[in-house]
Amino acid sequence: MTAKRNTAVALIRETAPFAIRAERASDVVAREALLDACFGDNRHTRTCQRLRDGRAPAEGLSLAAVRQDGRLVGTVRLWHVSAGGRSALMLGPLAVDGDCRGLGVGAALMARALTVAKTRGHGAVILLGDAPYYARYGFSATKTGELLLPGAFERERLLGLELVEGALDSAWGMIVPTGAPLKTRASRARSRKAPLAVPHAA
């Protein structure tokens, strides 16, 4: 029985020479370089970027895939949105280093992201992507036909996945960001320097 367990662990290590963990501040430079390599210099002008600009990702849902040497080889983030009045998460970007494709990095990131999202009580995830690829994770256009994005997009690429049955029922209208504003260095510095409020007598 013990030998059987050891064999299974060895096989997992052999087929998945990477680990999925929470994104760290030290990952930022490598993450940005990976996204540039995967999506090009114009990635900041894409439609879904409008839902991310100036917003913080959903708590616990910024994930990184790293090799044993510590090199970042994959990334995914999810963001709070309102999908036509329905609370949801927007997934993206999902990126994998070209040298590591075929190792299951993308699948592992997706599996962890969806598991964490469900554990944290989120009801639905939406993304803009290739329908045949994301169908394996349960995404479809079944309940996104009446939703819109703030910019040009291909209708068949707007996909949704319900983590809670009925979470996207009657979803209609514009998808808008609802995440917390991103704290910049300047805003953090201002908050540190701000004087303490003195209560006024009534």
TrEMBL record:
Q: CDD domains from the xrefs?
A: NAT_SF
Which is a Pfam family this sequence falls into?
Acetyltransf_1
Q: List where the protein spans the membrane.
A: none
Using the record's annotation, list all stretches that form the N-acetyltransferase domain. Answer: 18-160
The organism's place on the tree of life at top rank: Bacteria
Q: Name one GO molecular function term.
A: acyltransferase activity, transferring groups other than amino-acyl groups
Fetch the InterPro entries from UniProt.
Acyl_CoA_acyltransferase, GNAT_dom
Q: What is the protein name for this chain?
A: N-acetyltransferase domain-containing protein
Organism of provenance? Bradyrhizobium ivorense
